């Protein structure tokens, strides 16, 4: 019997993929959201269903409100929403602030910040006891960039994740008495495809010696922290952030 539906945004690859597969392994029906790569999302669904789980792939850009509504409508068809993993996010090419365009900034904030808030809004509308829901959990995906700043590379990305830090604290306090726990995970340098999309595929290797553990992390290691926060073992934990960064 399903433990309820979990939506994982940006679940076609990397950390989102690991979160989706791990959530399914823990008994959740999973909505595998993706923005454009249908093949990758279908592969995640196949991995879940092949292991006896339940999942559907749902296309949608979290920065577009109508797409967000469609993602949650698909979740409603699967059953009662139990959790949201706000994982979808983008990074742009390495650049200094004095080279940023308005278009770059608008895209970054629309997906990383507005998209996360819109998804959380819809999750609260379904899970909050104030709306007749049964409670649930939200885990936002932050980044150690929010405390390191990412100078000369991704200051805008760092700023977007700083917004996620603040949003996590505020929403957690807002819905704590309504059966919803809200937390975040703050990954460090993780071996995923996001570095290649930013034009620095060797970034983890280049910065490895700055990490006390002297290695990059894996998507599964981040997902394990996410799923712990969603579990009953974290029943008294809300408004907090777990940093998964090898000590950096």
From TrEMBL:
Q: Where are the transmembrane segments?
A: none
Q: Which GO terms describe its molecular function?
A: oxidoreductase activity, acting on CH-OH group of donors
Ordered alphabetically, the record's keywords are: Oxidoreductase
Protein origin, superkingdom: Bacteria
List the Gene3D superfamilies. NAD(P)-binding Rossmann-like Domain
Q: Does the keyword Oxidoreductase apply?
A: yes
UniProt keyword Oxidoreductase present: yes
Q: Which Pfam families match?
A: adh_short_C2
- PROSITE patterns given in the database record: ADH_SHORT (PS00061)
For this chain, the family text in UniProt reads: Belongs to the short-chain dehydrogenases/reductases (SDR) family.
Report what the protein is called: SDR family oxidoreductase
Q: Taxonomy-wise, where does this protein's organism fall, top ranks first?
A: Bacteria, Pseudomonadati, Pseudomonadota, Alphaproteobacteria, Hyphomicrobiales
């Amino acid at each position: 019997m399903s433990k309820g539906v979990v939506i994982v945004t940006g679940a076609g690859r990397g950390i989102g993929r690991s979160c989706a597969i791990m959530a399914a392994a823990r008994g959740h029906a999973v909505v595998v959201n993706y923005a454009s790569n249908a093949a990758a999302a279908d592969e995640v669904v196949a991995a879940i269903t092949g292991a006896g789980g339940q999942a559907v792939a749902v296309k949608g850009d979290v920065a577009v409100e109508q797409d967000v509504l469609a993602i949650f409508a698909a979740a409603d068809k699967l059953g009662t929403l139990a959790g949201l993993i706000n994982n979808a996010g983008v990074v742009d090419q390495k650049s200094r602030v004095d080279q940023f365009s308005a278009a770059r900034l608008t895209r970054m904030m629309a997906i990383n910040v507005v998209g996360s808030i819109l998804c959380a809004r819809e999750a609260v509308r379904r899970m909050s006891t104030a709306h007749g829901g049964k409670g649930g959990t939200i885990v936002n995906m932050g980044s150690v960039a929010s405390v390191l700043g990412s100078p000369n590379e991704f200051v805008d990305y760092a700023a977007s994740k700083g917004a996620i830090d603040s949003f996590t604290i505020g929403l957690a306090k807002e819905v704590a008495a309504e059966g919803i726990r809200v937390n975040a995970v703050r990954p460090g340098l993780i071996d995923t495809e996001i570095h290649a999309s930013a034009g620095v595929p060797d970034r983890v290797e280049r910065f490895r010696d700055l990490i006390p553990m002297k290695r990059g992390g894996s998507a599964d290691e981040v997902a394990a922290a996410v799923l712990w926060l969603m579990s009953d073992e974290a029943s008294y934990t809300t408004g907090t952030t777990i940093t998964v960064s090898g000590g950096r």
